[in-house]
Amino acid sequence: MRLSILGAVPGVTELSRRYREATLRPHDVVEATLAKLADADPNVFISRVPAERLRARADELAAGPGPGPTMPLYGVPFAVKDNIDVAGMPTTAACPAFAYTPDRDAGSVRRLLEAGAILVGQTNLDQFATGLVGVRSPYGACESVFGGDLVSGGSSSGSAVAVAAGIVPFALGTDTAGSGRVPAAMNGIVGLKPTRGLVGASGVLPACRSLDCVSVFTTGLADAAAVLGVLAGPDPDDPWSRRAPTPAAPHRVGGFRLALAVDGELDFEGDSATAAVFAGAAARAQALAAGVHRIPLGPLLEAGDLLYNGPWVAERLAGLADFLDEHPDDVLPVTRAVIERGREFDAVAAFRGIHRLRELRTWCDRVWERADALLLPTVPTTFTRAQVAEQPVARNLVLGRYTQFANLLDLAAVALPAGLTEDGRPVGVSLLGPAFSEDRLLRIAHQLQEAP
Fold this sequence. Notes:
This protein is an alpha/beta fold. The protein has one domain (1-248, 379-452): Amidase signature (AS) domain (Amidase signature (AS) enzymes, Alpha-Beta Complex), CATH 3.90.1300. Helix content is 37%, strand content 14%. It has an 11-stranded mixed sheet with strand order 1-3-2-4-6-5-10-11-9-7-8, sandwiched between helices. Helix 2 (26-38) packs antiparallel against helix 3, helix 9 runs antiparallel to helix 12 (347-367) and helix 10 crosses helix 11.
């Protein structure tokens, strides 16, 4: 059996099954991928691996003396966000003047290649991973796969669209404020944001170094778990790397306890259609839960506000100040304006922020004494590219309302599609839990997806 070049490349688990059954070869998958790339939106990729190198990689896998199809990601194509290093390819962070060519792969890329995966290219992003809209790039703005001029979400826009469009079964993004979850919601796919440090970030250009993490986009939950199984583990080149506890965070026997927002606290920006789809998802989740705990959202939103309206924006500036000073005209005005707000904060403000965040984390830790997961909308509403152009900063903040506190509060999260509005716009929900609760969140997400 050969792949049709007209449809999407199968998912990770399906490809692995077909390889094991010898009904598919890496060459077939590479040719199907090249055909998809030929028809792809040109704004999705910034750099692509040449066709001859992809075919050579297929030859290498097919002829290799190693474990072959038993490799966990044998013959599976993937893409990475263009702030993640690939040896011999330019890392641009969507800023051509900043580009450099690394001589070694990022730790995450190296793990994937060693597991047998096939790298296809590096994807578009909001410049310097600063934004949640997917339009802040000199390489063009990615549209959501749902069309209608809807933004694709950012900053990992190209990675999400590459998966949602069926070009690759999975892609890596990064997530500081929601960049691994907002694009998932806007394109109807799964976005897994691991606990900070669970996946090594060596070779990843920092956005906000103490908060950054590598994220995973797939079309299915089992695929996300399979990729995380390869990625997770200590990274000796990343000082922020952390080991998961042994055993991992325990899963409560007898059903999961669900946290939801206090009635009336969710703000959908007047988007009643999105609110209705979320209400249906929340009702299904409540029916499955062993118990429901209502929480106020104020402490979460306050924590999230520290990221762009507090001293953590200075951490973004810390990594780019010299470049901004030397290349003021090579950075998009909106990107420069966001990052340079870091000059407004001094060390006193930073320590005040750290102290307040510790208080908010303590409040959040108490939530997990009564709940196993918190269910929220991933984004409150959708915007078109034209609407974002009208209010580029304000509408970016709206998209991050229910995502940007997660890394500050040391949470894990998984975003998954919840359906469509009557006018065909995607709606996503997110499950959040304490650090190292990825397995639990994926199990609960599976139950939600299987619910009638």
